[in-house]
Design goal:
With about 100 residues, the chain is mostly helical. About 70% of the residues lie in helices and about 0% in strands. It is built from 6 helices and no strands.
Amino acid sequence: MDDQGMTSEPPAVDAGDLAVHEECREYLAEVHQFLDGELGAERRTVVQIHLERCGPCHGAYDFEAELRVVVSTSCQENELPEGLRDRIASLLRDLADEV
């Protein structure tokens, strides 16, 4: 145990928790589109029903949703270093010219 009362070893994980059924792979591949509102109404409903019924997939959805909030919040709180926006724009123009 460290000074903060945490163990240095990862917690034991039941291998069954990590098993992803072939059907779940399809739904997990659509989590980002689901979060972005890019799925049609019918497909969105089908994915939502699966997420509500499948614990591992719902956990993956929750993680992605929370990650987006953290990234969004972090990006709003920090100012860009001086000149970074201009350097990025210049690099994008250079890349566009190469294509």
